[in-house]
Amino acid sequence: MSYGDLRAVDGVTFDVAEGEFFGILGPNGAGKTTTLEIAEGLRKPDAGSVSLLGQPAWPRNVDLLPRIGVQLQASAFFEKLTAREQLETFGSLYGVRSARVDEMLELVGLTDKADTQEAKLSGGQRQRLSIACALVHDPDIVFLDEPTAALDPQARRNLWDVLREVQSKGKTIVYTTHYLDEAEVLCDRVAIMDNGKILAMDAPARLVRDLDAATRVFLERGALSVETARNLPGADSVTEDELSLVISTRTAAPLLAALAESGTLDGLQVRTATLEDVFLDLTGREYRA
């Protein structure tokens, strides 16, 4: 998929299993949203094809609409309608009963805002309303484009519970996010994209394991001298800053045993590699506009 000279999506291929929680990750401009829009049937690919629930996603397939839910990055609502009225309007397109609207308001924590006009909701509340609109007709597949953007930490964690509940009912979720800790917790598999290509795709735990990154052990500054730390079994490298002494190791067990024997476990922290380390290793650390 190209926009002029920019190739936004370049030879991307993936399958998503029924009931799977699949994440698409990547820096700004990686092609995540375009990939999602092609999968949803909102954009015609320049080449290739998309099969959605066994049917072609393009040309726009009206038979698929009751079976998919879509939450776009930029949501548009009907003016002057309350949260409940927004959901009732979306639901009426699919013959949804009023009780289902109440269920969705409760699911996304907006019951107390049911009679509030959408324009008077906070950014996070509008985001949750958008997700409720995508779910109100009980679709088989839900596409969510950065669903937790603009949410505070508490609301973000609450939405994780919502998404887990949706998946527990056998639904398939395909989403994009910039929150790598979130993807690591929620996703069965992730695809990491950059420059329109998929660089890696697997379960988060496997991607982290394949990185073979060092474990870092943090001690309070002054707990050990740098020289002593360098002579500990398993210590590969040692650095020190104003707050911490950091020991990198690929054999953590003998190192931790030696620290325990020397009585220097107070304040110790152990940090293993995460999906963020995989992401940065694949896409680099330079600033993306």
UniProtKB/TrEMBL annotation:
GO cellular component, as recorded: plasma membrane
Keywords: Antibiotic resistance, ATP-binding, Cell membrane, Membrane, Nucleotide-binding, Translocase, Transport
DNA damage in keyword set: no
Gene Ontology molecular function terms on file: ATP binding; ATP hydrolysis activity
UniProt cross-references to Gene3D superfamilies, sorted A to Z: P-loop containing nucleotide triphosphate hydrolases
Family matches, as InterPro entries: AAA+_ATPase, ABC_transporter-like_ATP-bd, ABC_transporter-like_CS, ABC_transporter_ATP-binding, P-loop_NTPase
Gene Ontology terms: biological process: response to antibiotic
Compartment(s): Cell membrane
Topology in membrane: Peripheral membrane protein
PROSITE patterns hit by this protein: ABC_TRANSPORTER_1 (PS00211), ABC_TRANSPORTER_2 (PS50893)
Similarity annotation: Belongs to the ABC transporter superfamily.
UniProt-recorded name of the protein: ABC-2 type transport system ATP-binding protein
Phylogenetic placement of the source organism: Bacteria, Bacillati, Actinomycetota, Actinomycetes, Pseudonocardiales
